[in-house]
Write a structure and sequence with these properties.
Elements (H helix, E strand, L loop, with lengths): L1 H23 L3 H12 L13 H13 L12 H13 L2
Helix pairs in contact: 2-4, 3-4
């Protein structure tokens, strides 16, 4: 059982780092372009300023997957989700 719990901790830590890495390597300029083209019709970036970037990325991914309610369906790649989240939470 001890080996299993160690594995669970390792996998959880690895998943966290992978998720953080995608946010850390986000392209804010690309996020701005995508936000302007896809999101700006209904949202203002200042509404999301200071929000947690990883949480915002997770929310956007849920919208893309269709598991979270949203006005319209979104078709974005994982990289685009990270880029948009970085732009939105940066408030720039």
């Amino acid at each position: 059982m001890r080996k299993f719990s160690g594995l669970v901790v390792f996998v959880g830590a690895f998943a966290g780092l992978v998720g953080f890495g995608s946010v850390a390597h986000a392209d804010v300029a690309a996020g701005k372009a995508t936000f302007t083209a896809v999101c700006a019709e209904c949202h203002e970036v200042v509404d999301f300023e200071g929000e947690d970037t990883a949480a915002m990325q997770a929310t956007i991914k849920k919208i893309v997957a269709g598991t979270q309610k949203h006005k319209k369906a979104l078709k974005l790649t994982d990289a685009q989700c990270a880029d948009v989240a970085a732009y939105m939470t940066g408030g720039k």
